[in-house]
Amino acid sequence: MAAAESYPDDLKYHEEHDWARVEGDEATLGITWFAADALGELVHFEPPEVGASVTKDQSYGEVESVKAVSDVIAPLSGEVLAVNEQVVGEPETVNDDPYGNGWLIRIRLSDAGEVDSLLDVEAYRQVLANQ
């Protein structure tokens, strides 16, 4: 059963439908409910390697659904500290819990100032309204 539409207000959002939960100099990244819903049931997640660098606004992996293969866009830059192995093994976890167990990677921020360029929940809702 897919999760109900939601956009937690403690997250920062990227206009490409990715989110970041920033905690100090680290951030957990994932895709929003909107992205998961648009893709349909995920069947594969191709993550970066732990230790790799991700760059804001650039692809860091792919998610595949029964409908399409899509790049996952990094909302922030940093070094990959962890990959969610649960999602690698059970990609549908993202559909069920996109902001909890469905997180994708955890990074150490290389430029904390990038956080200021992300959208708050209200600004992200405006992006959705204009889709």
Properties at a glance:
alpha+beta; 34% strand; OB fold (Dihydrolipoamide Acetyltransferase, E2P); 131 residues; 3-stranded antiparallel beta sheet; 9 strands
How is this structure best described in words?
The protein has 131 residues and is of the alpha+beta class. It has a single domain, classed as OB fold (Dihydrolipoamide Acetyltransferase, E2P), CATH 2.40.50. The chain is 19% helix and 34% strand. It has helices at 33-39, 85-89, 93-96, 121-129, and strands spanning 12-14, 18-23, 26-31, 42-46, 53-54, 59-65, 69-73, 78-83, 105-109. Strands 1-2-3-9-8-5 form a six-stranded antiparallel sheet. The protein has a three-stranded antiparallel sheet with strand order 4-6-7. The longest helix has 9 residues, at 121-129. The two termini are 25 Å apart. The mean pLDDT is 96.
